[in-house]
Amino acid sequence: MVVPDPNPTVNTHTVAFGSFGFFSSVVNNGLTRRPPLSGLHRHAIAFVIGAALGYYYRQFERRHWAERDWYIEDYVQRHPQSFPEPEKKKMGSILHPWGPVK
Does residue 4 belong to any structural domain of this protein? Predict the structure, then answer.
């Protein structure tokens, strides 16, 4: 089961891809010897296109990992003999004895 994002339209992917679109437009202006922020409508369009690509990439990524987890859980449920329950250990038996160094 996939836990839904609390705010699916604004996440790291939309911001990163949108920023990449914005700054690629700024670099394009620099390479064509225009002022960096001239043509703000192109910057806005590049940001929106980048954010949309980031949104759909995030959806694809979440579906990919959810499908992968489903396959793994299904395999573990179908082959329980390959995945025995681990024995329970107490922290005292795992950690080495400790003494302060003076």
Answer: no
Per the structure, the count of domains in the chain is 1
* CA pair distance 70, 63, nearest whole angstrom: 10
pTM of the model: 0.71
Q: Is position 101 within any domain?
A: no
Q: What is the pLDDT along the chain (102 residues), one digit of tens a residue?
A: 666 766 678 888 999 999 999 999 999 999 999 998 899 999 999 999 999 999 999 989 989 999 999 999 999 999 999 999 989 998 888 888 888 887
Check residue 2 and give left, alpha or beta (phi > 0: left; psi -120 to 50: alpha): beta
